[in-house]
Amino acid sequence: MNPPYRSFPLELSRIVGLLRRLVKASDGSETIEFALLAIPFFLFLLGVVEFARLYWTQSELQYAAEAAARCDTVNCCSSGPASCGGSTGNTGVQNFAAGQLLGMSVSSSNLSNFRVTGASCGNQVTFTYAFDFIVGPLIPNSTITLSATACNQA
Questions:
Q1: Which of the residues 11, 86, 100, 125 could staple to 64 if both were Cys, CB 3.0 to 4.6 A apart?
Q2: How does DSSP classify residue 139?
Q3: At what angle do helices 29-73 and 89-99 cross, to 10 degrees?
Q4: What are the sequence ranges of the domains in the chain?
Q5: Residues pairing with 144 in the sheet
């Protein structure tokens, strides 16, 4: 009975003969081609997904900034309603902005450099957010700081 595998001899002439036979044979060539092309293809797909997620996050941050600027203009956080986390003032507006990030579980403390100022355009809300890629732990310094600014006329 033959063993289910063949051990490779370490002689150079036999290895050269084996390589010639592998080049001429077409059995399994599709598997080898897939193995060579799959890595760059899946890296490309991962990149597309990551940058789509980055763009979506930036869009959500901008929407939250616009909603927070409007909230500050109409004084929706003046009495500390539930949508403002029971807080008033800038903290209430910051909690409201964090609540407007639909599909994202972000606490208000993750919105750093949060400022509500009176500008020539009205009430202006500005904040930053540290975006981490999915493969962030594998790549050092892979955090991108996203910022959002919105103004609502008083």
A1: 100
A2: S
A3: 150
A4: 27-152
A5: 131
